[in-house]
Amino acid sequence: MVSDQNLLNTVLSKSRLREKENLAQKVYRDEPILMTASQMANFTPPIYRKMREIARTAYNEPENVIFYKQARFMEHHEDNYEHHVEFLRYYPTYVSMSDAQLRCYFTWRTKVRKGEIQKTSLSFAYIYIYELLNGIGVDSTEEGFLQLLHFLQEYSALDCHIGTYMNRWLKDYCIYYNLNATFLKKIPDFKDKTIAHVLIDAKNQSDCSVFDALVEISAYNIKSSRFFKQYKDVCISVSAEVVRALNEYYKTNGLFSHREYFFGSFNSGKRMLFAGAVFYDRLRRDGYKYKISDDEEYTCSKGQWQFKQFMLFTGRLQRTGELLRTIDSLLRAQYEFKHALKKGSIPTEWDEIVQRCIENYIIRKRYENAPKIEIDLRLLNTIRDDAAVTQERLLIYNEDAEVEMSSETKNLFSQHSVLSPLQVQFLLCLLNNEPFTALLKENNTTAYLLSDEINELLFDECNDTVIVFEDDEPLILEDYETFLKGYLDL
After folding, report:
1. Secondary structure of 139-167 as H, E, C letters
2. Which of 124, 63, 125 is nearest to 97 (CA)?
3. CA-to-CA distance for 310 and 260, rounded, in angstroms?
4. What span, in angstroms and rounded, lies between the C-alpha atoms of 178 and 286?
5. What pLDDT was estimated at residue 198?
6. What is the pLDDT of residues 261-271, one digit of tens each?
7. pLDDT in tens, 299-319
8. Which of 32, 86, 103, 478 could form a disulfide with 81 if both were Cys (CB 3.0 to 4.6 A apart)?
């Protein structure tokens, strides 16, 4: 049997003979390049030699510039190399790769771009990331970000080591290419609202968000408190109101920012974007600003990046813990909780703010829990007609009658003309625990109507509801019994 090499030699000899004949006859034509399978495996397409020539001619330029030029030259190249060659390098570039490694990488990249992401050498994966960071292989910066994010999500399932720098680089990508803030929110673990921001912007945040932010940096664990476990909603609501009141206090009085006293301070300094990556800063921004929030922004002047960011104090804050401990303590006293707690050490003005917030909460809850009277406006005409008939009958029945009133009630009414005689009589019945059904029937009214009228008339004096209903029965709040007796000179 004739071997492959002998067959090749025979073909080549005939080819050389034909070449001599053509030369004699001055005839030129294309001739095939004949190689064995082993020779074909070692064959490197010319584009790789041209790629290496870029590095040789730019030998005096920085490594990141050479990488960018080579990446741009090979931007659309595809390969179908059948062999896999490992490539491990801490700071990988094209220059550090052999011909076989280059062909293996571009074959893998060809599949990735077609949606077939396979596990490979980690250094190959990082080179692909470097390309996207430099805008290689994408038509827009927005597309580049989405490609980066997609590759991170897909490849991290194959190799957990790929996510070491990715979140930082994705954020740097948004900053460098001036992407809309909506892209920042797509980054895993990105928080568009820092703890400090939530607390300072408490008026626009929910009670739970403000409370959770406060607890996050507190040395006092209020969630383990006995009172909190029984009155969770009260603690959350009052704590949030205290933070809002503190914000307003410092804003109104123009004093130092309490977030810097309680939570941390602003830090600023140099920032190196894409640290740890092979990246060429081709934009060289100048007079540029990228603002993430009121607590974080980045600026660039002639390629030099600076950051300004509000940094929380490390560890849980003792000062914030003292505030939450005081809130817990004063709430226990207000609710007469059987387990007392010593107050935290906070400024006097803050103690007063906490007291006021608790009082406002109690008043608000009393008002919210008071029975509401709803009137169907569609029935007003019927009510008016019925009232006219009733009035006519009463006039006829009491033509010569006059409502009897004790001299004591007349004196009370004359002293407090804000209340009608009927309202005074009704109050006296409630204060003396006397029946009032006949009084209501004689005056064709209800306890709800009378109570609403009295509450409205006395609201300026008490700043609260004085009559509430329990089991549909009117009741003067215990806190205001003494006041009403004094008001009526009883």
Report:
1. CCHHHHHHHHHHHHHHHCCCCHHHHCCHH
2. 124
3. 9
4. 13
5. 84
6. 666 778 889 99
7. 999 989 999 987 776 666 677
8. 103
